[in-house]
């Protein structure tokens, strides 16, 4: 229930959403003093409550958000992105935000070793965690498995798929064929 003094998210054409405080309610409309200094008038039905106790660095799994709505999700992803935390879970779904730069430390052999066999959710969200769960399920159940990578053009689907293949090849062993590891052979097939 939104009342005067409530902290809310309001639609703002220039930036999608702004946070602010309700300073006045008149019928089905509210006047909001936005954090950016603007005064906004919006329908009450178009306002979303803001979690004033949200962690400063965001949450690694959005099912932990007090309010799971568009502005809350976007704020959480933006907060984590600013900290170079490009991966965030929503339950067992991994959301990746393209950093538009190489973050090699996220994909080196040390990182692969960390995620190998680690229970899902024990470590920070990562594409290797998703691959590890799929691989382990395939091995234990003896059935084929799949990982869906989707997104808009330029979202990083190809790079994510390369990282998945690199990790799965790493898990699959390092038996050499003609001097090349399984990992090298798989990666060469997709590059």
UniProtKB/TrEMBL annotation:
PROSITE patterns according to UniProt: MYOSIN_MOTOR (PS51456), SH3_LIKE (PS51844)
UniProt KW Repeat keyword: no
Binding site for ATP: 151-158
InterPro entries reported for this sequence: Kinesin_motor_dom_sf, Myosin_head_motor_dom-like, P-loop_NTPase, SH3_Myosin
Domain Myosin motor: 57-191
Domain Myosin N-terminal SH3-like, chain residue ranges per copy: 3-52
Pfam families: Myosin_head (PF00063), Myosin_N (PF02736)
Keyword Transferase: no
One GO BP: actin filament organization
SUPFAM superfamilies linked: P-loop containing nucleoside triphosphate hydrolases (SSF52540)
Top-level taxon: Eukaryota
GO-annotated molecular function: actin filament binding; ATP binding; calmodulin binding; microfilament motor activity
Coiled coil residues, start to end: none
Keywords: Actin-binding, ATP-binding, Calmodulin-binding, Motor protein, Myosin, Nucleotide-binding
GO cellular component: cytoplasm; membrane; myosin complex
Family according to the record: Belongs to the TRAFAC class myosin-kinesin ATPase superfamily. Myosin family.
Protein name, entry field: Myosin motor domain-containing protein
Species this protein is from: Aegilops tauschii subsp. strangulata
């Amino acid at each position: 229930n939104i009342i005067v003094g409530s902290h809310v998210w309001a639609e703002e054409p220039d930036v999608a959403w702004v946070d602010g405080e309700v300073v006045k309610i008149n019928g089905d409309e509210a006047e909001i003093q936005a954090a950016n200094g603007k005064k906004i008038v919006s329908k009450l039905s178009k306002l979303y409550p803001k979690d004033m106790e949200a962690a400063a660095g965001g949450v690694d799994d959005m099912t932990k958000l007090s309010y799971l709505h568009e502005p809350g999700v976007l704020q959480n992803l933006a907060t984590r992105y600013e900290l170079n935390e490009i991966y965030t879970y929503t339950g067992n779904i991994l959301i990746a935000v393209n950093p538009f730069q190489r973050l090699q430390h996220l994909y080196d052999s040390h990182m692969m070793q960390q995620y190998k066999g680690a229970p899902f959710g024990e470590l920070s969200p990562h594409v290797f965690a998703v691959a590890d769960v799929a691989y382990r399920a395939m091995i234990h159940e003896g059935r084929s498995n799949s990982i869906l990578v989707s997104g808009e053009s330029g979202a990083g689907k190809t790079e994510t798929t390369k990282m998945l293949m690199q990790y799965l090849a790493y898990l699959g062993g390092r038996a050499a064929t003609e001097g090349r590891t399984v990992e090298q052979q798989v990666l060469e097939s997709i590059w």
